[in-house]
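Quick one, T. Sequence first:
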Amino acid sequence: MKNVLVTGYRAHELNIFGQKHPGIAYIQKAITAKLVQLAEEGLEWVISPGQYGVDLWACEAAIALKRDYPDLKVAIITAFEHPEENWKDDKKDYYNQVLQGVDYYGTVSRQPYSGPWQFRARDDLLFRKTDGLLLVYDEETGEGSSARFYKERALKLQQQEGYGYLGISTEDIQNLADEAASGWDEAAGPDVG
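Structure tokens:
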């Protein structure tokens, strides 16, 4: 995959209501592991819809990877102008911080929110511009309003034209948290210090 769409749950769908939640680090670690694998295979762009939750955490993870993969680029393409406008100040600050590290920021509709057509237009563009989807989603854990839609669409495109699909489940993330709690790091071995 040269260009990957990364998305998943919104923060509130995971009962995460602030940036200090310990689960965010494990979500980012799982995303980072997949992105490293893709970067080793020639990944050029990480593209996200930029909504608060997995989208922004993935962008932050990809931005951090640019130190080791300087050719990697990160883009946020939103459905409409100023999606953060009604967010709380801490979320707005985080969003603006992430925007500082992206290589491209664009919006499909150059107006404020006016209807669901903007999300459809954005999603159509995102699927056209990418070769595959990296999705943080788990059907057993919860539906996830847009995450389920992304999975269904990616799998349909996979059958039709070979579109890629990589998933990260809540079990994958929980395994990372359990490894950390037990002092075991898959890459480094046991924590004996």
